[in-house]
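Tutorial, part two.
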Amino acid sequence: MKKTDKDERGGSVTVPAGTGRAVYTDRRSEFIGFCTRIESEEEAKEKIEAVRKEHPAARHTCFAYRLRGGIVRRYSDDGEPQGSAGRPILDVLDRKGVDSALITVTRYFGGILLGTGGLVRAYSSAASSALDDAGLARLVPFAKFSVSIAYPDWQRVSQILRREGAVISETVFGSDVTATFSVRLTDAERILAVIAEDTGGRCRTVPMGEEYLAEPV
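Running the prediction step on this input gives:
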């Protein structure tokens, strides 16, 4: 699971799970799709420029990205006929509700005009395949806690945390056990109550805020 910043809307957020690539060919034109997760417009611009440098001989590198729950939505046709490239790429992200995501599609012209309909189909296909290759993950709000506890109690607490799907991010074994763990925000109150009951109130947890963690869709 990967830590990330909290989305402004609250609730879970769907994002690319990794980096994806795909190639779509139509009448000798090659469309190379690339999908990745981003955290800011600055990062999006840097990655778009990196793709252009990777393909200096390509005629077009069109793109679309979404951030902040779709509040920020940008796209570019990069010289292709208006509405034939950037918007179809953005539609791929919109249809699946994918956020914090950038998709670029680089075109190597094959000498045959495809027409607007052919371009829309090609850019959409390359973008969709790149997103499929990246996979999807869901960012879920977790509550983070620290605890210092005696060894016998830690054995019971760790069993509860594993059973509940908690993320134990740090464990230090000294005279007592000091641990940091995260549980789903919606389950936190219930899990803490179970821990308190099972240890006779000897386990005192200290809140450390909230974080979003990525889970496969």
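The two ends are 12 Å apart (CA to CA). In part three we will examine how such features are distributed along the chain.
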